[in-house]
Amino acid sequence: MSSALSASDTSIDATLAMARAALESVTDPELPFLTIADMGILRDVRARADGTIEIDITPTYSGCPATDVIRLDVEVALAKAGVERFEVRNILSPAWTTDWMSAEAREKLRANGIAPPEKASGKRALFSTTEVTCPHCGADATERVSEFGSTACKAHYRCRVCLEPFEYFKCI
Amino acid sequence: MSSPDQAAHLKYLLRLADTSLILGHRLSEWSGRAPTLEEDIALSNIGLDLIGQARPLYAHAARLEGQGRSEDDLAFLRDPEEYLNLQIVERPNKDFAVTMARQLAYSTFAELAWSALKASRDPEIAGVAAKAEKECTYHVRHSAEWVIRLGDGTAESHARMQAGLDDVWMYTGEMFEVDDIDRAMIAAGIGFDASALKPRWTEAMREVIAEATLKMPGDGWMSTGGRRGVHTEHLGHLLAQMQVLPRAHPGAAW
C-alpha cells in the first residue's frame, strides 16, 4: 500500500516537473521576448492529490485581448508536453500589478525598446510628467505623446535627445 | 437562486457589469472617427478597459445564477428593460466635448466606487475593483485634461465644453442613489455606499471645472431608473447594434 502510494507520488512529481518545464516556454503574445512567468501572469503550478495539475494565471490589464490567447497557449504547451489532466484557473484576486514584473522582465523590455514601468504604481497629478528614461539612448528628457498606445498596457512617448519615439509600459 | 440575498447579489453584479459594458460599447463607437489618431487609440483603449472589467463580472453572475447562461448570453441576449446600467453611460456620444463631460463625470465616480469595492467580501468584485480603480485613474486624467483644454481654450471650445457638462449633468444624480439592493449588499459586506461618495465626487468635479474656467452646473431634476431597468430611448438602439450578430446567428462562435 505505502509503496503504491509513493510510486504514484513519484509520477505526480514527474508530471508536475514536466508541466513546469513546459510553461517556461509560454510567452506573452504581445511581448514575445517575455515569458508569462517574467510578466507575473503565471501565479502557481501545483498538483492535486489525484494528479491533476492546477495552473493559476491572472489577467493583466482588464481588457487585454492577449489574456485568452495566453490561456490557450498554456493549454497547448501542457498538451504538447504530454500532461493529460490539468485545469487552468483564472485568478482575479489579488489583482495583477506591474510591480509583479521581475527585474529581468524590466531589462528585457528596455532591451526591446520599451521603457519599463516605474516601480511604484500610483496616482499622479494632472498634466504631470512622469520621468521616463529613453530606452534607446538613456536620456531623461522625454515627453509623453499620448497616455494610450498600441496596446492597453502602453503609453506613447518621444525622446527629446535622440528624437526617437518609443513605448512606455504603464504601471498599474 | 434561492435566497433573496442571492437575487440581490446577482442584480448587483449585473448593475456593475452592464454599466461598464455599455460605456465600453459607447466609446468603441469613436473607433475610426475620433478627432485625432491618438484620441482614437485612447478612446478605444478606455473602451477595452471597460469591457474587460465587465467580462469577469458577467462570468461570475452567470455562475451565481446557475441557469446555464454564459457571460455572452448575459451581454447579448437580454433586452433593454433587463439591462441595469446607469443611464449616464447609455447617453449618445454627440460631439467630443459631450463625450469628455460624460467621461469625466462617470470616471471620477467609478474611481471612487471601485476604490470602495476593493474591500468587497465578494473576492471576484474585489479583484476586478483593484485593477479597475487604477485604470480609472488614467481615464479620469485623460478626460480632465481635455475638459480643461477645451474649457480654457477658444470661445467655441469653451461653449461646447460647457454645453457638454450641462448635457450630462441630470444623469449624474443616479450614480449616488442607494436602494434596497444596495442596502442588502452593503449589509452583506459586498457593496458600497454610493451616497457617501457624493461630496468627494463634487469636490473633484469642482476642481477640474474651475481650472477649465467653466461653470459648475446646478443639481436640478435628476433622471433615474437605469439600475431598475428604466432606460432612455438610446439604450435600445445601442443594444440593437451590439447584439445583432449573436441574435442573427444564435450560438455562433469565433
Question: How would you characterize the overall build of this protein?
Answer:
- The complex is a heterodimer of chains A (172) and B (254).
- Helices cover 29% and strands 20% of the residues of chain A.
- With 172 residues, chain A is α/β, with parallel strands linked by helices.
- Chain A folds into two domains: 2-96, GMP Synthetase, Chain A, domain 3; 99-169, no CATH class.
- In chain A, the strands form two sheets. Chain A has a four-stranded mixed beta sheet with strand order 4-7-6-5.
- Mean pLDDT of chain A is 86; it is low at 1-5.
- Chain B has one domain (4-215, 225-248): Ferritin, core subunit, four-helix bundle (Ferritin, Up-down Bundle), CATH 1.20.1260.10.
- The two termini of chain B are 31 Å apart.
- The A-B interface holds A 59, 61-65, 90-97, 121, 123-124, 126-127, 145-150, 152, 156, 170, 172 and B 24, 38, 41-42, 45-53, 55-56, 123-124, 126-132, 134-135, 137-138, 141-142, 144-145, 148, 208, 211.
List the helices and strands and how they pair.
The complex is a heterodimer of chains A (172) and B (254).
Chain A: H1 2-23, H2 36-39, E1 42-47, E2 53-57, H3 66-80, E3 86-90, H4 103-111, E4 114-115, E5 142-146, E6 154-159, E7 165-169
Parallel strand pairs in A: 2-3, 4-7
Antiparallel strand pairs in A: 1-2, 5-6, 6-7
Helix pairs in contact in A: 1-3
Chain B: H1 4-28, H2 37-65, H3 71-76, H4 96-117, H5 123-151, H6 155-169, H7 180-187, H8 198-211, H9 234-248
What attributes does this structure have?
heterodimer; A: 172 residues; 2 domains; 29% helix; elongated; disordered N terminus; B: mainly alpha; Ferritin; globular
Concise overview:
The complex is a heterodimer of chains A (172) and B (254). With 172 residues, chain A is of the alpha/beta class.
